Amino acid sequence: MQARRARRLLSRAAKIAVDASPLIQGTAAATAAWVIADQVVGHAEPFFAPIAAVIALNAPLGERGLNALRLLLGVVAGIAAGELCTFALGGGTETLALATFTAMAAARALGGARVTIAQAAVGAILTVAVADGQAGTERFVDALIGAGVALVFSQVLFSPEPVALLRRAEAAALAEMAGGLELTAQSLARDDAELGEEALNRLRGLRDRLAELGRTRQVSERVARRSAVWRSQRAPVVRERENAGHLDLLGGSCLLLTRMAAAARAERDRLAPPVRALARALDELAKEPGDRRTRQRAADHALEVARRLDDPGVEGGSLSAGATFGVRMVAADIMVFAGADPDHVEAAVRESAHQLAVPDPPPAPRLPFEARRWLPRRWPLSGGRDPTE
């Protein structure tokens, strides 16, 4: 009970830390933009610089750099519209209305996103409202400062490691599958239909995790393609994205096995052990999906489960064709996700002498630009371990 409570507290603390990270980054970026505009450039009221920094960073991962460029496009359109309308009509409500409409229309015509259209309107309103002849230039410089700070934060200082992003999403999906199969094994061992229904509901809810994984696959590709510091990671990201795609099939196999288990009450005693073994293999994978030894162990356990289905010496007799098919599907999908070639998986299941080797997964370095090349091989303060590993 205490161990479970400790895990729950650690999970909650980790979630709080993840949620607080973008807030801290936004605060730091706004402060840096204000200091640069106030102390370095010398603007009297540089409020637009921190506003631009916060708005540029207020986007999902993989979109923040593009968001900064969209913001700049909107500011340019807004300032240009505001200056032109002020020059032609002077100040006043009519000028404000015309400048705002013109800026938004121009941003929309340029194919601008919502943030571009909104910033065009803001730029026009501020330019007309201040209307001191220098306002447009100062606001544009402030926008450049804010967007520049946001680009440094999003593309260099706090650019997320794309392979690690994928691994976290994979771990969450694998944990859900492991939990669903463990509930299935418990329902079989206890002959508890309610637990079986709970397992089905949990695995049906897996589609949300898989949808999140799908979004993360897109984000990781954008980060590797657009971020200056992770361009060297494009090849590993492609490999890991393809690997993560196998989880859709694995999730469907787990749901199918759970449904078959609900209908196979007569052989529940024989079906519970292999289902529990597969749940443990998935749970082990969820803890370290990027570790080759972990993947190898999970593949070995899944292979052992698949082979034992045809073992005539197993106590209690063999399973029905449907249950055997369901267990083998999950076992095969675990091995494929671990990195094994599908053709080798089939051969390994058929031939007991055939070994299944899992290749090294794509690397996920913690430092960009292959910085480990210039770091010491051993770090005394970390117990002799290279922190980039």
What is the C-level CATH assignment of the largest domain? Mainly Alpha
Stretches where pLDDT is under 50 for at least 5 consecutive residues are 312-316, 369-389
- Largest sheet composition: none
Secondary-structure element pattern, one letter each: HHHHHHHHHHHHHH
The count of DSSP E runs of length 2 or more, i.e. the number of strands, is: 0
Task: State the end-to-end CA separation.
Answer: 34 Å
Tally of helical runs: 14
CATH topology of the largest domain, by name, is: Four Helix Bundle (Hemerythrin (Met), subunit A)
Q: Would you tell me the overall average pLDDT?
A: 79
Rg to the nearest angstrom? 28 Å
Query: How much helicity do the residues have?
Result: over 70%
Fraction in beta strands: under 5%
Shape: elongated
Count of folded domains:
2
Which structural class should the secondary elements be placed in? mainly alpha
Short structural summary:
With 389 residues, this protein is an all-alpha fold. It is 74% helix and 0% strand.
Write the layout of secondary structure elements.
Blueprint: H1 2-41, H2 48-57, H3 64-89, H4 93-109, H5 114-130, H6 135-157, H7 162-190, H8 193-204, H9 206-226, H10 234-263, H11 268-287, H12 292-308, H13 321-338, H14 342-350
Structural descriptors:
389 residues, 74% helix, 14 helices, mainly alpha, 2 domains, disordered C terminus, Four Helix Bundle (Hemerythrin (Met), subunit A)
Describe the structure.
The protein is an all-alpha fold and 389 residues long. The protein has two domains: 22-157, no CATH class; 162-350, Four Helix Bundle (Hemerythrin (Met), subunit A) (Up-down Bundle), CATH 1.20.120. Helices cover 74% and strands 0% of the residues. It has 14 helices and no strands. It has helices spanning 2-41, 48-57, 64-89, 93-109, 114-130, 135-157, 162-190, 193-204, 206-226, 234-263, 268-287, 292-308, 321-338, 342-350. The longest helix is centred in the N-terminal third of the chain and has 40 residues, at 2-41. It is elongated. The model is unreliable at 312-316 and 369-389 (pLDDT under 50).
